[in-house]
Amino acid sequence: MFSINKILRENIKNLTPYSSARDEYQGEASVFLDANENAFGSPLEQQYNRYPDPLQYHVKKRLSEIKGVPPRNIFLGNGSDEAIDILFRSFCNPGVDNVILVPPTYGMYQVSANINDIAVKNVPLTEDFQLNLEGIAEAIDDNTKLIFICSPNNPTGNSIDRTDVETLLANFNGIVVVDEAYINFSRQKTFIQELTEYANLVVLQTLSKAWGLAGLRIGMAFASEEIIEIMNKVKPPYNINEASQQLALQALNNIEQVNSWIKETLIQRDKLVLGLKEFDFVVDIYPSDANFILVKTTDANGIYDHLVNQGIIVRNRSKVELCEGCLRITVGTPKENNILLQTIQNFK
């Protein structure tokens, strides 16, 4: 049976979070002399002399309307990377606890574990890039606090079998983190709908991919109110700046534009796959539920260098376990995709 108190670090249980000026006063006022801000303004057209809302209420309220989740179940971070780091710092004791990763997967889980001095148990995906449930079960011990699952997975592009994830959620007494950075491009439904069923579920999403806001650095975590409260307690007081909050609010009112881009991305993804299949040095193109494709080739290094020399940058994943000989290629605009195909055609 999952119990948050059993896996929460003792120092976090007893932590008194920093109380900012904006935490201590909430309401309407005309004179703010509490936070040692510059009262005269900013040397900019837009005024940023006041500290931002530490809990980003207006952004969460808008996300709540879009996602169908109460604001109290939403955490906003400086990218999903901040949410990942906070989960380590909240639930994993350095030098004692461990987490399970299922490579090939998003590399930041390993980096964050290393930074926080948390041991990693790697249980590689199967040959068809699905979970090895038996291997995961064998790897779990009393000090296993987190399991990270990226779905759709980066760099393979496929979605992880839903029933396998549910099996982990139902049987693991720690937290299962489902990273859905690419969910907007997927045929699979989000795990956000399962939050009321599983107290140990954390779902990560981002505004960096389909929403086109990578430069604003806004990641989202959806979880139980208990887990969100802990994450808010551990985070820096003003982790999302005012400019990012205001621009995110503007963007979140343009859902039709984003949906149009998603549809076009999927069309271009199919065209890119068909184009790449024409080349005899392309061995395989794996099915994708994301805005990128993983392409197995006979000479990944050679093709990568050829593209770089022409000013075209893709991701060489050939040294990643189970991705030998592979390039990860993001779906671009029709013009960018055509340039890519024309350039590859000249590779010898």
Concise overview:
The protein is α/β, with parallel strands linked by helices and 348 residues long.
- Tertiary shape: globular
Instruction: Compute the CA-based radius of gyration.
Output: 22 Å
| Tally of individual domains | 2
Q: Give the quaternary arrangement of the chains.
A: single chain
Q: What summary fits the major beta sheet?
A: 7 strands, mixed
CATH superfamily of the largest domain: Type I PLP-dependent aspartate aminotransferase-like (Major domain)
Judged by helices, strands and strand pairing, the structural class is: alpha/beta
Structure description:
It contains 13 helices and 11 strands. 36% of the residues lie in helices and 15% in strands. The chain is globular. By secondary structure, it is an alpha/beta fold. It folds into 2 domains: 4-19 and 54-251, 3-Layer(aba) Sandwich (Aspartate Aminotransferase, domain 2); 256-345, Aspartate Aminotransferase, domain 1 (Alpha-Beta Complex), CATH 3.90.1150. The strands form 2 sheets. It has a 7-stranded mixed β-sheet with strand order 1-7-6-5-4-2-3, with helices on both faces. It has a 4-stranded antiparallel β-sheet with strand order 8-9-11-10, covered by helices on one side. The N and C termini lie far apart (58 Å).
